[in-house]
Structures are given as C-alpha cells and as structure tokens.
Amino acid sequence: MDKKDIYEHLAKIYLDASLKRKNKTSKAPTFKNLFFISFAVIFLLVISLGLSLTKNKSLSLAKFENNQPLNNELALLLQPDIVKINFNFDPAKKESYSLYLNKLNVARFKALGFSLKNADYQDSVTLRIEFNNIFNERSEVYIKDISHKWQHYKIPLSDFKYISDWSEMSGLSFIVEEWNVKGKKGIVYIDNVRLLK
Predict the structure, then answer these.
(1) Residue whose C-alpha is closest to residue 139's, from 112, 164, 176, 111
(2) pTM over 0.70
(3) Do residues 142 and 126 touch, judged by C-beta distance below 8 A?
(4) Are 75 and 128 found together in one domain?
(5) Phi, psi (5° rounding) for residue 117?
(6) Burial of 94 by CB count in 10 Å (0-12 exposed, 13-18 middle, 19+ buried)?
(7) C-alpha to C-alpha distances, 193 to 64, 110, 165, 180, nearest whole angstrom
(8) Which of 101, 105, 137, 179 is deepest in the core (most CB within 10 A)?
(9) Pair type for strands 74-79 and 111-118
(10) 157 and 139 in contact (C-beta within 8 Å)?
(11) CA distance 108 to 78
(12) Are 166 and 150 in contact (CB under 8 A)?
C-alpha cells in the first residue's frame, strides 16, 4: 500500500465518521423544535385549564339550595362574582355595596335572589337591602343574623312595599349600618345577585 492509498483510506474513514455524526445530530431535536413543542404544550394546558374553570364557574352559578339546579328560575344575573362589604365603624356609620341598574325594567321579575355569609361567626349582623327607582321611590328589606356559612335568600319584590313603579330602576344597595351589628369591624360576603321570574 502506498501513501496515496493510505490517505484515501484515512479520508474515507474520516468522511464516514463525520457523516455518521451529522446524521446523529440531525436526529436530535434542536432548540427551535423544543421551543415550539413546549409552547404548544403550554398553550394547550392554558386553554384546557381556562375551559375547566369556566365550566366550574357556570356550574356553581347554576346551583341553588341543596345543590338543586336553578333550571329556568334564573332570569337576570346582576352580579356573578363574590363581593365583600368590609365594615369598620370608627368613624363611619355605614358601609354599602351598590349596583347601578341604569333604568332597568324589573316589572317582569318576581323576586331578588342572592347568597350571604358573615366572616365572623360570633358577630350578629343585619343587612339592609334597598331598591330605588328614578322617581326617588325607595324601599328596603332587612336580613337579620347573617350566618358565617353561605345562606341563600329569595326575597319577593312585593316585600319592597314603597316601590310602585318597577319599570325604571336606578339602583340596588346592600348596606351594613353601625346600629345593626354587634362588633365594630367585620366582613359580609355577597354572591350571585340575580333577579328571578
């Protein structure tokens, strides 16, 4: 074997080895491929999580006492999220949460539904629920001794005796007043405020 044959043989071995190395590296995923795969997986996880949360929230809104479905009872959802009235009667005399009804026609509805919970099980809290219309008619109903566990309420609109015209309502308020609580500080939670047919 002469020098030329030896060089050709070594070159062939080197080229074969480098081709095998290129084939191995091309089969391994690149950074670009890994990035797109991980992005796709994260995107699908976020979409599925969002759908499951939406499904759970809609299921929780469609339940009432004893986990019985509301069926066609739910007519208009005014406030789907939990809100809190955080009261501290030093120096305030009342705290409230109000919904602006923007001249809403409530005449076709029969009742107001909502859920309440008092944060402090030792405190005795009375809540004033007040409707008013654009004609300055105002009427209220009181809910006494709010429990520290969620309680569902359904108040007939006929209980708001001083409202004669329900066609243009301006507001709905939930009010905690200093003289209607035992303690000076506390929290009342309100959820799922709705008008029922």
Answers:
(1) 164
(2) no
(3) yes
(4) yes
(5) -155, 135
(6) middle
(7) 12, 14, 21, 22
(8) 101
(9) unpaired
(10) no
(11) 15
(12) no
Retrieve residue 162's tokens: 């001083």
Q: Residue 116, Cβ neighbours under 10 Å: how many?
A: 20
With tokens 């001249």, the residue in question is 103
Q: Please list the residues that pair with 173 across neighbouring strands.
A: 98, 130
Residue ending a domain, among 13, 46, 61, is: 61
The last residue of a domain, from among 61, 94, 111: 61
Q: What span, in angstroms and rounded, lies between the C-alpha atoms of 131 and 168? A: 11
Encoding tokens for residue 53? 């949360």
Residue 26: give the domain boundaries. 3-61
Q: What is the pLDDT of residues 61-105, one digit of tens each?
A: 444 444 444 445 557 888 778 888 877 777 778 888 999 999 999
Residue 2: is its pLDDT beyond 50? yes
Q: Amino acid identity of 40? A: A
Paired tokens of 75: 């007519």
Q: Tally the domains of the chain.
A: 2
